[in-house]
Amino acid sequence: MTFLAARPASRESSRDGSSTVIIGVPFDATSTFRRGSRHAPAAIRWASQSIETFSPVLRRDLEEVALSDGGDVELAGSDVDAMRSAVRSRIEDLATGTLPVVLGGEHTVTLAVVEALRQSKGDLAVLQLDAHADLRDEFEGRSLSHATVMRRIVDRLGRKAVVQLGVRAGSRDEFDAAPGLLRYSSSMLAMPTDVWSWLEQRPVYVTLDIDVVDPADAPGTGNPEPEGVAARELLPFVRRLGALRVVGIDLVEVSPPYDPSGRTAILAATIVREAILAITASRPA
Q1: Where in the chain are the domains?
Q2: What's the pLDDT score for residue 283?
Q3: Which of 97, 138, 203, 233 can pair with 121 through a Cys bridge, CB separation 3.0 to 4.6 Å?
Q4: How far apart are CA 78 and CA 35, in angstroms?
Q5: What is the mean pLDDT of each run of 10 residues along the chain (285 residues)?
Q6: How far apart (Å, rounded) are the C-alpha atoms in residues 153 and 267?
Q7: Residue 10: per-residue pLDDT
């Protein structure tokens, strides 16, 4: 099953001219508390069948986008380094200028995509929408896990390359370290004008952890946190992404076993549709 209006595409045809390619990464080996995000790519594709290709807010249709679905990255076992290598290879195989839309999986998949993109995007910035800071240097004996991924991204891109929005949970050390590591961090989705202007001046990778949304709207996630943003707040923000030079985006941490109604997966599919339509509005079809 492919995502909504996307045509199927194999890795061999990943240079077929599609401007946007959806790639699933069914991996959750470092997840804690409520695992299951490895099932998310399939669940989001399934949920997408329940929504329209047309966005009445953006007045655009996925039928207007050169969109393909490359399926899932083939993974062997639960080794995080093997996953990173496989994801990097898939992203690097895309034609220049292709927008990768990655469906996690847990948040460690983000590091692999960033590692691939930074080779051609020297001044890459990362915009993170997340309930958690993910800035620990180590968690449960791992230097790379869903709880340390943004610290590893800072290591790769340098200090002040990351903007965090929606963050409302983390250790004391993470919150103490954030001002020295990040460009900006807030529990809200709004950001100062100068931060938005800074993002406008460089290629941006967007990583969206579904737990940025309040559990009332998105209960199906591994580590839900109360007092999150509402879906009606997040979607307008996603539609603003068209004003940035977004070179890739992921949506991670949907956990279908804890989403019996399917509402989290449906919201995730809607976010993906709106993001694609917003980001590609100024790109050739």
Answers
A1: 7-131+207-282
A2: 63
A3: 203
A4: 13
A5: 89 62 96 93 98 98 95 94 96 94 97 94 94 94 90 97 98 97 97 98 98 98 97 98 97 97 97 98 66
A6: 27
A7: 65
Q: What letter would DSSP give residue 56?
A: T
Burial environment of residue 194 by CB neighbours within 10 A (0 to 12, 13 to 18, 19 or more): exposed
**Count of CA atoms in the C-beta half-sphere (13 A) of 74:** 2
Please, is 75 exposed, middle or buried when counting C-beta atoms within 10 Å of its C-beta (0-12, 13-18, 19+)?
A: middle
Q: Helix (H, G, I), strand (E, B), or coil: what is residue 229?
A: strand
Overall fold of domain 7-131+207-282: Arginase; Chain A (3.40.800)
Whole-model pTM? Answer: 0.95
Distance, in Å, from the CA atom of 144 to the CA atom of 15, rounded to the nearest integer, reads 31
What backbone phi and psi angles, to 5 degrees, belong to 103? -105, 110
Count CA within 13 A, CB hemisphere, residue 7.
12
